[in-house]
Structure formats: C-alpha cells, structure tokens
Design goal:
Elements: H1 3-14, H2 16-51, H3 63-69, E1 76-77, E2 94-95, E3 104-111, E4 124-129, E5 138-144, E6 151-157, E7 160-164, E8 183-192, E9 212-217, E10 222-228
Antiparallel strand pairs: 1-2, 1-3, 3-5, 4-5, 6-7, 6-8, 8-10, 9-10
Amino acid sequence: WWLIPLIFFVMVVWRPWESDAGSSSSGGSSSTSSSSGYTSSSGSSSGSSSSGTVADPDPTPDAADAAFRAVSTGDCLTAYDDGYDDWSTTVPRRVSCGAADAYTRVTSARKGINFADCPTGNGRSYWYHAGSVSDFTASLCLERQFRTGQCFVAKVSNTSVTKSLLMNVWSCDAAKVPSGYNATLQITGYHRAQKSYPRGYCARSQGDRNSYWIYDVDGGKNVLCTTQTD
C-alpha cells in the first residue's frame, strides 16, 4: 500500500517522459527553423544578384555625331553638293557666314529623322545623319549661300537649261562635269526678286550678246542671273 502514493506522484505530478519528449520536439523545431532561414537567405541573395545588374552607361557620341550635334540653326557650313550625289565634306564644318567658303546656311538643325518638312526649291536641300546610335540621329535643313562669280553644273540644250544643280559648287574653269550634265553656269548677278524682268535684265553691258537664265532662289525672295562659261 505504501507504493500507491509514490506511483500516483510519478504518473500524475512528475511525468519525466514528457521532459524528454519536449527536448526532442524543441530540437526538431530549431533544426527546421535553421533550414528554413537558410533557404530564405539563399533566395534573397539570388534575387539581389539578378535585380542588381549594372545598367549600361549612356552612349558616347563619335566624332561624326559630335560634329552634327554642334551645328545650330543659323550656322554656315563649307559643305555643298559635289555633283555626285554626295556632300563635299563627310561631316559639317562651321565657318563664319561671311567667309568665302560659307556655301550653305542651316535654316533648321533638328534631332532625329526630321527632314520631311525642310523647305524645298532652288538652292534648298537637307543633310541627314543616321548617328552611331538612334539618340544621335540629326537632320539639317540647308539653304545655298549664293555669291556672284560662283559656278554650278547644268545641262543645256540649245537655248534651254533642262537640268541644273544649284546646291553644287563647281570650278568655273573645269574641263569636265559630272555625268548627266554638259555645262557650267556662272552666277553673274544676285538681286532682289521682281514681278517681271525686262529684256536684257541680266546683261552686263549694252552690247552683251550672251544668253542668260534667271533662277528664283531663297524661297522666291531673290533671283540669280547666270550664263554659260566658255
């Protein structure tokens, strides 16, 4: 009978097997938490590596890009049509508008493919630069700077000019002209436009028997008197 209270104490109050089970359960929980924490950390590290990729730096303009970007509306350039469907210089070179080699004036300097509405007509054109990357694409609207004494190529048939290239500058003494042309016309006068032009308007003297052709330029504001060189 004296064992009955001892057994009751062990079974109901002390219960030593639950202490062992608790220790085992606690250890398992700790292990699971550690494993879960490592997986989370690993996932976070992987995500950080992916999202932290360094972006490419801004593109740097090459020499041609820089030359076109330096041009502003109102600048004058040495470039002209070379007579062979190209410009006389590979990139624009700016000069004083009063310089003898200031052959063209920039009426509009624009970014991107933006030349469709450049002014057209005698002595007007555009220069498009594709750019090393699209950000450096540029469009220049150009107008020829005419001066008395300059020459350009043309095609003359009897007393008519059937084709002329007013954006061109050609040597007045040249023995040859580009294919498609057969003459060189020289600018003998550069005047304000009028409503009409009397006979002999371009003649340089009373006995001048040369043939002259008049061109409206600068959007109709001015006119050129031209004649064929010998």
